[in-house]
Amino acid sequence: MQDVDGPRTSPVQRAWLIDEVVRNILAHVPPVGSSKTLANCARVSTALSEPALDMLWSRMTGLSPLCQLLDASSVDEHTSHLSPTVPHNAIDDAGWSRFTHYARRVRKLHYHCREGPSERLSQRTFAALVRRASRAGSPLLPRLEELSWLHCARDITPYLHFLSPSLRRVTVYVQVGGSDPAPGPSPPDAQQQQNTGSGFLNLLDAQSPQVEELSLEGIALPASLEPLLAFRRLRSLRLGTVACPVAVVVSYCGAMPTLASLSVDLTCSPAASASASVSPAHDHLGADVDTDAPVLRALEDLRVAGAPSLIEELLRSVHPETLRSASLSIVVSEHDQDGGTRCVGVLSTRFATSLQTVRVHYKRAAGRLPHTARPFAHYVQPLLPLGGLRECTIAVEDPALVVMTDADVREMAEAWPALSSLEVALCPNPYTVGATAAVPCVASLAAFAHRCPALTTLRIPVGHSISGLDERAHLEHDGCASVGHGLRGLWLSGVWFSEEESRRVVPFLKRTFPRADLSPMVGADSHGGLCENEREQQPWIRSFATPPTVLDTFMKTPAAPTEAPLHDIVARKPAHATSLTQLPESPQYIDGRRPKTVIEFGKALRYLPLVRSVAFTGAGMGIPWKALETCLSFPQVKAIEFTDSATFTLVSPFPTDAISACSGLEELSYPTPLTPRLHYLLERQTTLREVCALERACLSPLVLGMNSAARSLVLPMKTAPLSDMAKINWPALQSLTLGGSFRTDADLWNTECLPSLFRHTPNLRRLNITAGLPYPTSIRCSVLGCNAPPAVGLEGLRSLTIAYPDPNDAVYSTPFSGLVSLSLRDWPRHYDVVSHAYYRDFWRSPILSATEALSILRRLQAPGLASLELVYSADGADDDLLTFITRAFPKLRHLELHRYRQSSDETVDYQRIARTVAEISTLVTLRLNLDFQDDPGEANDTDVDFRVLTQWRSQLSTIGWAVVEMLSERCPLLEGVALLYRGQPPAMWIWCLRSRQATRCCAYDRSPENIDTFAPPWPCGRVQKWIMRGH
């Protein structure tokens, strides 16, 4: 490209001088590889430099790239995540000029990390930046427009330094620990949170008066604040879960003159006072009632969850002429059975002329099983007066059966003539087995074609009845259909039609709604779908498949148009379908995004006959049953794997008939981290208890259905259906892994569960139980218990891995004639728990003592053991333990020792350990973590100078080569010795290989399969307490 600074003789060259043109061109740079492309553009010409740099630096996830401009020589070339440091003196003018030259280009800062910038960059670096910015009289990022901050600590001051007058959008999540606040007097912690919230809101209002969108979670609203915050330009406010009274929320929001959107969760708020109640008669008087009370006069969109009385109090504070959209998640208690309808009645009486969109989710308490069904009219009648309604969603979770009739359909169609979207979800009754509620017939849908000409999306449950589908019975509607009704998105949930029934249903639907896209309801055959010519040869396919997923009730997506019309679509009922397909349980909260499933998902497997394993990854909203069912319909698929980025977080519970679909599956891998991903919980505003319940509901049919063919299972200890697994046979199971963490009530865990399971696994060869122990527990991991007989089906084990083993466990008395690998370890790693407070505050680490480890190994009957990993704390039996290992296992080839000092002032004699281990003549590899006294550790929650880390790494290398020399003479098969280095996360092994002994050149092993630390390397710390409460 010719430099545009040269002679310009053409209009094309002169166009490069127009800044708007250049920025429009750069805006089309593909996202993949955009950083490199923009950097190249910035270097190629001065005309491109400024716009390209603006786009390159517009979005940041931390300050490290900017701080590298201060002192680039201090950045570790091997660990890019380590932030540089600056000298003790203040930042000089040249360094500050480089910093501000790029900092002024940052428009978005998304900082989601457990540590604040002071810990991430070191206290000295961040303090120097703040001092220099204060002296200059400007924020750190002076042109910042969007700030998204997740910081799990009590100190909220770090993000205050990023407040600037240019801010438009702010999202702040602060987790300060503790449980949900209870109503009543504020405890000291709650009072401190209120003071913190008061200070933050005052500063935000003063320093960023142009904020238009504000999302807060963990910021407690104080009971009173004078003067009230104005936020003159704020249009959208999301408060998350609040514990203050509704009156406090209204007082704050009422002072914001432009507030148009409010989202708040009142489930933790105290009950409304009697004085706050307003007579329903006042609703007709509009805004003139009680003019002194705060009123949300500009509010157009309201999303609220909580008890009926609280929602009702908030609704009465909204101006009746402005509200356009309302989303209510109503938790109806047993003592207030009519609270839901009374609450929704406020919408009809107060906002009858203004409301256009209503989404209501009723969730009734399930304390008692009702004896009679409840009519759907009980829920829909309060909404019928809203004649101008355009979008409506009604979801009902009721322990009683909900009866929906054809009359309900006609009433909705007649009451809402301007309706464009209607979604109705009747959640299944989890208590009444075999009972089905009445639902309208397909013919009743003709009422929408006649009464609602603007309807474009319809999702509604229907029944098997096909009466009234005769064409002559609907001549009055054919006139409407002849001109073409505009309905495109149609979903009939909860029904399977036979081949004969489908021959009548499909023509009726095509005649009534000629533009409707029926393809989402058309299921696939065992080969993943039929093409057009196949349909002609075999004119029946499975139809009306799985109903909408969990969040369909509230978040809809328009149906994709079909490329070609579907002709003569008929269906048959599959042999295993004996009842209605039930709509899965709806969520308690409204906010969120609906998980989507591609209609043609899995079709490519038709052309890949040798594919045996399918792995799911990068599906943050979860893997629904429909996707799994499609994969399992191909007989060649024998293995399913889920990564930690593809779980069951936001999907529907799997149906019970999923058991039959999994009968041919041989391998299932569903590993979970110690705690679920934080943003999943924040996005759904749910608790870990609900996440585990959903995970257990999805795993149970999947695991139990594969018992006859299963060969390998990787499951979470917390949610694996172990009790049910112990009741059936597993004739082919060879490998079982239980990970994640124990429940907090693990002390009450039935220890008979695992022994019963092992009696049904005659071919088990590999057992791995690596689960963390949260603080409420006091046990260690016991496989068989202390009094169980040793012979329970484990004699054939070849590999055994136990985290935090119980030395009294009877499993170590089992005669393992074929055992070749034994690991008595820890999880999370003991050095992580000891070094970092954010592990230590939640996870226990009851590792073995040398005496306990020796007692286990003395009972162990494994003459063929070739690999041993041992984690223990040194005591008086330290020498005896090492000596016993060298003599008891003559075939030992791989040894890994994690030895922790008995006291902090102990000096580790690594030479004595090496001389003892040298007695193992068959040794091939040796890994050592000896907890040296001088080890700076993995930062140890303090600021460790990089030079100290470099010096320690060099010292470890020297020790490693010394051990290699001591072992070389007596261990002819030795390949190398590794020492654990924890200077920078994640930990890595420094290998001193015998083949490199002449050059003394170490190898650094940080490969994913060998990273010897808890993942992720920078977890969310104390937020674990929040997401683990209740379990």
From TrEMBL:
GO terms for cellular component: SCF ubiquitin ligase complex. GO terms for biological process: SCF-dependent proteasomal ubiquitin-dependent protein catabolic process. It comes from the Eukaryota. InterPro entries: LRR_dom_sf. Gene3D superfamilies: Ribonuclease Inhibitor. PANTHER family: PARTNER OF PAIRED, ISOFORM B, PARTNER OF PAIRED, ISOFORM B-RELATED. This is F-box domain-containing protein. It comes from Trametes pubescens (White-rot fungus).
